[in-house]
Specification:
Layout lengths: L11 E7 L17 E8 L2 E7 L6 E11 L2 E10 L2 H9 L3 H9 L2
Antiparallel strand pairs: 1-5, 2-3, 3-4, 4-5
Bound molecules: zinc ion.
The site of zinc ion has 7 residues, from loops.
């Protein structure tokens, strides 16, 4: 269940920024910054993180991605709240990327 700390994130949240179009930029809720790091992999513009709400203990998988597109670049951030079974798998997984493909849906 979402608590006051992580509630603004909901079940999932996204942010995206396209180069040269700041008026269309979206960002993750500020609450995503208040989560505790459990595990991190990747680097540069492509990072996966398993994070945890310090208040209620819910785990989340978050990621950043970066793409070159025709006419510019695009940064993307996402965060998904994990159920208990998926949290177990993420904690045990050799790579968070394996779980990310599943929860991200693409
Ligand atoms: Zn919480």
């Amino acid at each position: 269940m979402a608590c006051d700390t992580c509630g603004p994130i909901g079940a999932r949240a996204y942010g995206g920024q396209k180069g040269g179009r700041p008026e269309e930029d979206t960002w993750l809720p500020a609450a995503a910054q208040g989560l505790e790091m459990v595990r991190e992999e990747g680097g540069g513009d492509r990072v996966r993180r398993l994070v945890r709400c310090p208040a209620c203990g819910d785990h989340f998988l978050s990621w950043t991605d970066y793409e070159f597109l025709v006419g510019g670049t695009e940064d993307e951030q996402g965060i998904v709240r994990l159920d208990a079974a998926t949290t177990e798998r993420a904690l045990a997984a050799r790579w968070l990327l394996e779980v990310l493909h599943e929860v991200r849906g693409y």
